[in-house]
């Protein structure tokens, strides 16, 4: 009769060439669980969006502060405006209580609420929008920075400060600002990305 060393509490010596049977986890081939990301790691995953949004916001507010210091409010046309390129590009200081091209004029509070709702929607649907991709983060960095810039104006002044004034012959393009430029560029780039995306993705 052969006695089992394990039955007497003695350690079993491994036998050369013999391997222990794999456990259930090894047989299933399940990968080891990854450690949960820290809050900082989750924030840094969107670093390009945050960096670009901050740059746009600071540039927008800096230029508006500068124009407010140089020109009194409601300065448009000679002799008060700053002529940069004669007959083509001027710096002015006007306000817009509406959206682009003065749409919804006088609805500054409503548009401020809409801006906040848009930012919250972008945050809520960040995965569906593909914000894990750098190119998409660049688009939404421009968009969010522009939205924040104009939102700050509405909260501080009750209107958006516009100062870039372009003339194309007899046609006068609606006055705009850095935030407006960033919003339009961000939306345009995102549409191009969406059109170039392979079908089914």
Number of helices: 6
Please report which band the strand proportion falls in: under 5%, 5-15%, 15-25%, 25-35%, 35-45% or over 45%.
Answer: 5-15%
N-to-C series of helices and strands? HHHEEHHEEH
Straight-line N-to-C gap:
68 Å
Keywords, please?
elongated, 201 residues, alpha+beta, single chain
Question: Quick recap of the structure?
Answer:
By secondary structure, the protein is an alpha+beta fold. It is built from six helices and four strands.
Question: How would you describe the overall organization of this protein?
Answer:
- Strands 1-2-3-4 form a four-stranded antiparallel beta sheet.
- Helix 3 (47-70) packs parallel to helix 5.
- It is an alpha+beta fold and 201 residues long.
- The mean pLDDT is 85.
- The chain has one domain (46-196).
- A hairpin with a 3-residue loop joins strand 1 (82-85) and strand 2.
- The protein has helices at residues 24-28, 39-44, 47-70, 108-124, 134-157, 178-196; strands at residues 82-85, 89-96, 160-168, 171-172.
- The chain is elongated and about 70 Å long.
Write the layout of secondary structure elements.
Blueprint: H1 24-28, H2 39-44, H3 47-70, E1 82-85, E2 89-96, H4 108-124, H5 134-157, E3 160-168, E4 171-172, H6 178-196
Antiparallel strand pairs: 1-2, 2-3, 3-4
Helix pairs in contact: 3-5, 4-5, 5-6
């Amino acid at each position: 009769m052969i006695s089992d060393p394990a039955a007497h509490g003695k350690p079993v010596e491994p036998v050369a060439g013999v391997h222990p049977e794999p456990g259930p986890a090894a047989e299933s081939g399940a990968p080891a669980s990854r450690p949960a990301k820290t809050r900082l790691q989750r924030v840094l995953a969107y670093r390009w969006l945050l960096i670009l949004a901050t740059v746009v916001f600071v540039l927008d507010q800096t230029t508006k502060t500068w124009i407010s210091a140089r020109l009194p409010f409601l300065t448009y046309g000679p002799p008060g405006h700053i002529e940069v390129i004669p007959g083509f590009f001027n710096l002015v200081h006007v306000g817009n209580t509406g959206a682009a091209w003065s749409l919804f004029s006088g609805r500054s509070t409503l548009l401020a609420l809409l801006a906040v709702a848009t930012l919250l929607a972008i945050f809520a649907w960040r995965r569906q929008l593909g914000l894990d991709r750098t190119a998409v983060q660049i688009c939404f960095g421009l968009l969010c920075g522009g939205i924040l810039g104009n939102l700050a104006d509405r909260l501080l002044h009750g209107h958006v400060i516009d100062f870039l004034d372009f003339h194309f012959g007899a046609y006068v393009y609606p006055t705009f600002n850095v935030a407006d430029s960033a919003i339009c560029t961000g939306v345009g780039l995102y549409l191009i990305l969406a059109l170039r995306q392979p079908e089914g993705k």
